[in-house]
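Note to self: the last two entries modelled the partners one at a time, which told us nothing about the interface. This time every component goes in together.
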Amino acid sequence: MATRLVPAVPAKFLKIALVVSVMGGLYCLALYKHAQRETQRQAAVELTSACAAKLQDYALRAGELYRSPYVLKTTGTSSATRGYSEEDVRAIQRGCNIVADMQGQQARAGAQERWNSTRFSRSTHASCAHCHQNAGDKQDAAGNRLVGSNGLAASWVMADMYDRFTGLLLPYELRQMQCYINSSNGFKPNAADDLIRDVTAYSRFLSAALELKIGNRYPEQGMDEIPVSATLRRGDDYVRGAHVYHEKCARCHGPQAFGTVVQGRVLYPALAGPDSFSLDSRMNFARVNTVMPGFICRNMPLGEEGSLDNQECRDVAYYLSTLPRPAGDKQGPLVALWQRAMMTVMPPLIRYAESLGSQETSLASR
Amino acid sequence: MELDVAAGNLPARRKRVFTSLPRVGRQRAASGKTWAVLGLVAGFVLWAHLGSHLPVFRSHVSFERGWKEFRTAYSVTDFGEDGHFVRAAQNGYNVFFLTWKYAGRFTRKTAADRINACAGCHTPVDMAYAFVNSDRFDPKLGRRVSFEERVMRCFAGPMDGFVPTLYDPTVRDLRILARAVAHHLQLS
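The predicted structure of the combined assembly is written out below.
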């Protein structure tokens, strides 16, 4: 018995030591990651060009009191509100950067400077500013906030309201999570993650800079949705939509809506294919048929906003919904597989069909 | 030395275990127990979903004294006479003024305690100002603190209780109450 016990004791000890060292290793890793995050919180923020301009316009700086130049300009008076500490300013700056350049394509250290946001996005194109344009605060040349421009400040003051799509009283943080899941075709960050909290801090700052009041509805909140009743009821037609798309949208978003990427930077995002929003996104016309048309009519084509009529916007949105895109969480594995197959098979087939069409056209012209 | 399984060389306790059941019988008993546990779990899940009739979502909110006056005084009706938001604000009101009753899970305070509700220390206006000033850097804690975290800390500290999760309706409804009051005060 004695000879059996001698090797048994070290074996048991080794097992315990192994478990303790693994747990200790994980603890040390957590400490290291926390320290890394803390260093990033303390570090100076290098702003994107859009954010530098915006935050300078709104005179964001640390101090006891904050006075909004925008409010002073638009109303002639400006009341002082509680100022921001150095830490708050950095959080707001980081939030603006995330909105303007979520993938970190303009950052020196890439997505690491955006709290590794790419962990939560399968799409390599997705960025908040694609839907929330001008860093979530779109204005015309005179400084008027634009109707249906999806302003983040207006969304913040109207957060926690009942959301008809989810059936929830939707907090601001949860809404951001949905964007990561559906619009970025990705995964849900934690509500307390810096990625979410910095965007909230930035949105709250915008609402203070624009002096928007909690619980008030502002026209720049969300999309200015276009239902069928806002058209002449000719019926939505994706063939008409395809025609309009190729005429007005394809020059930026590409003939198959895969977006335009130049030197690793997304100039125009994908509207179809693996880098676009998922089937569960509210931008998908097949899911919600009023949001995407509203976005198109108010914000597209860039520089010619308002040039499309309501029916054309609905047609284009309908056409886009027929293109292959990733399945969402609600669809299940079979639909996901089907969508994946379509995203792989359809693009070369369409290219081939279009090349045949162009050959026929050139022969006919001869 | 190799383990000698001959009954004569085993200690008495082991000998009993080894010899009380035949090998196949022991396996069957273990398998039967596993199936019984699985059956119990499956039965509970089926009962919870189909037979319990327990509502997953309760839209009913108890009507406490003072809510009618509060609703008028703080213009909660701006959000409608009734609806999800108004009911959440009403539940927030109940939690705020009768914490021991409506958030009893998160506090050890009882009706007998002098301070047994949020209203013991704060007013609804305080809450609204705390809400609009939240998400700021707290030099004492050395980090930014959200409104929800303040509520959670209140439950753990002054309310002598337990920390609700960030998603708990108690925390959410207190935030919504603060939002409704902030709207009345037109805070930004």
